[in-house]
């Protein structure tokens, strides 16, 4: 049966319009774009395509069907070109000039010079940041194309899909929009590098790249990818089953894998203590982005991206736990045997305490990651290379707090071993005192660290450095004060007046020599903490000065009545008191006591 005459006329009219814009047959058609011209001409062409498609449904004769197929192929080729041209012509909003200066680490510097939609969104994100990576309600879609362009693209997509050209439509869309995303990536400083390439970079370079990646990842997920998803929905939503999801996946999947490959490379890289905090930064950033990732990549076609993000987060957490364990072992085994001059604070002590102070700055993250107790020695352990720590006394502490306490325990254990390298026992005690005091002050100086470690353990540490101070005083001053005793000075018989002048002169000479040696030696020793240094000097003076003055008062007359008293009574009580002020300054002094002893 032949179609009605009106249908034949309508088909011929539509075919004529299609053929007039056949770029393979007309130079004029090749040079002009339909959708860049008059709206009336656009609507005529779309109506012609609709008519051809309608006629195909009712065509019964093979000749009619062949003519319709030929026309529709020409139309689809044309619409594909028009689709591509509109997409290319309207990618400029994503070319955000604010992202061009990737050499500048300060995101605000290269973000504040140019006013663009993306710039404003980036500034809004940064201004609402509180210094950590946590935020809420952070997805900020921007319009990537004007509404008239979106309308035209949707009109074309609707006809291509209904004609069975879905794959072609998706491929054109994906290639153009992926190119736009790649351009934004370049300006965000996201490089195309394999996991192996990333792992071969020096850590100092990676630290800078991690900072940039965190900023870039927030922009990509919350703005770039979210806006691309919105554009897909505006053009394709409702045009076939999950067409918008398919177009979004075609556009974003490659760039998203490229983006997350960086974090994956870091998560599986060789572990070392200096990497912990950047790994925690990455973990915090990715953890904060996870909800946004689930929202942006919520379709079945994007499931692999969601899975990749979750797996990377898990590996970063495992890396952080592994690094902490390796750090504990490194502190325990740190092998340096050269004593630090003057018994001052060992570089290991500074490094370890600064390290755990930084850990406390990541308290919330680390509390979530560290869920098991440290593997410690026990009082029943026979291993002499591992300290004891009774976890029963610390049952109320979190696993993270136990790890931090354990680190201070093994640090002290190592320091005790290093103290044995000092030939002077007094200096060994001073070394322990200095270092444990530094541990105490670092804990007190960090509210987060003090809260986690707790005042009970802090009291133990305080008692330990005070005991070291007592041990120092006993080691140094007992033998000096022993010179100021009365025993051995009296001749048998009359106790009140029978003083052996030779024994007394020898006693003064011994005291002078011992004190001068202590003064000469211990003025080069160092107590860096001003308050601790002053407290120890006061403690020394409280024992030494009264004992010396009392001894001088009891026996001065016996020396002064003999020959050359100045050879024996060389120092007044004030001289001794002044000399004590030279102790623990860390350099050889040239004070009054040294001039008089020459």
TrEMBL record:
**Span of domain Exocyst complex subunit Exo70 C-terminal:** 212-581
Q: Report the InterPro entries cross-referenced here.
A: Cullin_repeat-like_dom_sf, Exo70, Exo70_C
Q: Which UniProt keywords apply?
A: Exocytosis, Protein transport, Transport
**In its keyword annotation, does this UniProt entry include Nucleotide-binding?**
no
Instruction: Write out the ranges of the annotated region (Disordered).
Output: 95-134
Which Gene Ontology MF annotations are present? Answer: phosphatidylinositol-4,5-bisphosphate binding
GO-annotated cellular components:
exocyst
Gene Ontology biological process terms in this record: exocytosis; protein transport
Spell out the family assignment given in the record's similarity comment. Belongs to the EXO70 family.
- Physiological role: Component of the exocyst complex.
What is the official name of this protein in its record? Exocyst subunit Exo70 family protein
Organism whose genome encodes this protein: Nicotiana benthamiana
């Amino acid at each position: 049966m032949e179609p009605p005459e009106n249908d034949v006329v309508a088909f011929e009219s539509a075919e004529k319009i299609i053929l007039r814009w056949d770029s393979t047959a007309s130079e004029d058609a090749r040079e002009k774009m339909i959708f860049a011209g008059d709206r009336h001409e656009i609507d005529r062409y779309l109506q012609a395509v609709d008519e051809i498609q309608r006629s195909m449904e009712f065509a019964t004769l093979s000749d009619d069907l062949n003519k319709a197929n030929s026309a529709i192929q020409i139309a689809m080729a044309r619409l594909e070109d028009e689709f591509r041209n509109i997409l290319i012509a309207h990618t400029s909003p994503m070319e955000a000039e604010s992202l061009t200066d990737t050499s500048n680490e300060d995101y605000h510097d290269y973000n504040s010079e140019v006013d663009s939609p993306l710039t404003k969104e980036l500034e809004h994100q940064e201004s609402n940041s509180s210094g950590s990576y946590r935020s809420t309600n952070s997805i900020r879609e921007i319009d990537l194309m004007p509404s008239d362009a979106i309308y035209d693209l949707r009109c074309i997509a609707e006809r291509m899909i209904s004609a069975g050209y879905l794959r072609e439509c998706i491929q054109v869309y994906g290639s153009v929009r992926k190119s736009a995303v790649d351009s934004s990536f370049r300006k965000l400083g996201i490089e195309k590098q394999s996991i192996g390439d990333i792992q071969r970079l020096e850590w100092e370079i990676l630290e800078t790249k991690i900072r940039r990646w965190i900023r870039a990842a927030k922009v990509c997920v919350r703005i770039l990818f979210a806006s691309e998803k919105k554009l897909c929905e505006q053009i394709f939503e409702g045009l076939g089953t999950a067409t918008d999801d398919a177009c979004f996946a075609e556009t974003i999947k490659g760039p998203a894998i490229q983006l997350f490959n960086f974090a994956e490379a870091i998560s599986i890289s060789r572990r070392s203590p200096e990497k912990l905090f950047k790994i925690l930064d990455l973990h915090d950033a990715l953890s904060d982005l996870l909800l946004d990732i689930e929202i942006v990549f919520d379709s079945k076609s994007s499931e692999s991206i969601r899975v990749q993000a979750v797996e990377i987060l898990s590996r970063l957490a495992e890396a952080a736990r592994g690094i902490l364990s390796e750090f504990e072992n490194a502190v325990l085994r740190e092998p340096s045997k050269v004593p630090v001059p003057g018994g001052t604070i060992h570089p290991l002590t500074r490094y370890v305490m600064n390290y755990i102070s930084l850990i406390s700055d990541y308290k919330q993250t680390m509390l979530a990651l560290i869920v098991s107790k440290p593997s410690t020695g026990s009082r029943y352990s026979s291993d002499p290379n591992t300290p004891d720590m009774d976890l029963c006394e610390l049952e109320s502490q979190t696993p993270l707090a136990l790890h931090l306490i354990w680190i201070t325990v093994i640090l002290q254990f190592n320091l005790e071993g290093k103290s044995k390298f000092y030939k002077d026992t007094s200096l060994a005690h001073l070394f322990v005192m200095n270092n444990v005091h530094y541990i105490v002050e670092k804990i007190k100086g960090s509210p987060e660290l003090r809260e986690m470690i707790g005042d009970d353990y802090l009291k133990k540490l305080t008692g330990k450095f005070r005991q070291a101070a007592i041990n120092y005083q006993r080691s140094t001053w007992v033998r000096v004060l022993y010179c100021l005793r009365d025993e051995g000075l009296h001749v048998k018989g009359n106790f009140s007046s029978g003083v052996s002048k030779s024994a007394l002169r020898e006693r003064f000479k011994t005291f002078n020599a011992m004190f001068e040696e202590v003064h000469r030696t211990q003025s080069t020793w160092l107590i860096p903490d001003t308050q601790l240094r002053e407290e120890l000097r006061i403690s020394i003076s409280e024992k030494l000065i009264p004992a010396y003055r009392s001894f001088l008062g009891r026996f001065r007359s016996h020396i002064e009545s003999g020959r050359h008293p100045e050879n024996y009574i060389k120092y007044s009580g004030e001289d001794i008191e002044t000399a004590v002020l030279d102790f623990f300054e860390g350099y050889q002094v040239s004070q009054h006591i040294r001039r008089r002893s020459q």
